Amino acid sequence: MNAGRRCIATTDMWHNAGRNVAIIGGGIGGLTAALAFARRDAHVTVYEQAPALSGIGAGLQITPNGARVLNRLGLTDALAATGVKAAAVVPMDALSGRQLARFDLGGQNPAYRFCHRAALIDLLGRACAANGVQVELGSRIAAFGPDGSFQTAAGRVKPDLTIGADGLHSVVRGQISKPAPAFFTGQVAWRAMIQLPDAEPIARIWMAPGRHVVTYPLSKGRLNIVAVQARSQWAQEGWHNPDDPGNLRAAFADTGWELKSILGAVEDVNLWGLFRHPVAAHWRAGSYAILGDAAHPTLPFLAQGANLAIEDAFVLARCCNENASLDVGLAAYQSVRRPRVVRAIAAANANAVNYHLSGMKRRVAHAGLRVMGRVAPDAFVNRLGWLYDHDVTA
Length: 394
Fold this sequence. Notes:
Blueprint lengths: L2 H5 L12 E5 L3 H11 L4 E6 L10 E4 L1 H9 L3 H7 L1 E2 L2 E6 L9 E2 L8 E4 H14 L3 E4 L5 E2 L5 E3 L2 E3 L3 E4 L18 E13 L6 E7 L2 E8 L3 E9 L11 E2 L1 H7 L5 H8 L4 E8 L7 E2 L2 E3 L14 H17 L4 H29 L4 H17 L3 H5 L1 H4 L6
Parallel strand pairs: 1-2, 1-12, 2-8, 5-14, 12-20
Antiparallel strand pairs: 3-7, 4-7, 5-6, 9-10, 10-11, 13-16, 13-18, 14-15, 15-16, 17-18, 19-20
Helix pairs in contact: 2-5, 2-8, 3-8, 8-9
């Protein structure tokens, strides 16, 4: 049996039982991995350098492929209570403000949901605590040893497995291979939220030449906003960089009244540069493994960053659980995950182009969307069936 098939086989043996697993990073991917390992009786410790488990950023979309994992981990009710069930995705002509089409999401099973990052991290953190996961906050990893150990403020630890869920600047990835350099895509993104009670539960993609905005509602009457502009001026990578809301409004000053009204309500906004990172060639070495952004950062044009990390976490735990040898389990994990991630990232990169069309290409594309919305309202979901219908828990 090859590594990929071994990973997805069914077995009653729980090889994770008793294993000591360290997870560096207490974000969505790290906490999902912690829960998945803990539910198979591993001894799990999460090391998070921040003083609290909290969600940086704002909204995210949990698509059915990610929701299947969370449901399998016992979070069905918590997720339903946390997220807004999506009804549709609606492409818009940002310049005229006209709706181009409406593609139904209401029939997705499990449901497609809009969630606040902090709320998702909170429910994962509570589930981890209920399953015996230890969380060490304010814990910065100082040094790694050749024997798989690493230094924390509390002392040196040597787990059976160390998982890097520590994002773009992963320290664990450095123990596996030298990261390839990233390059600026020529695009920047703003992230903001406003209060907009009673907003329809839809994701709207407002497309304009060289830029676009995505809006969707969150709980507590909030509207999440992500705006992207193609430009040569570089901006720093990361979500922590505040910007003047006037710069955001100026970038979309020629758009329709509704979008301008939404952006006009923005009081606080962060700006970051979008960089393209190659998918890591190696996701494991010795007792180290990486997942999520540590292995494969993705551009935010397919709403899959969190979902791919959630999938990674479940598959990693499952592959290790189904193999007495961690080396075999980690090899199976990379074998199963890397091809799917490469495909998803390629699809996200393609959307970066499709959202920003101008001239004749834009007119043709918009006409096609109008026709598709009338004659094939399920086309959007069907086109992404390979993504949304995938079930890593099967």
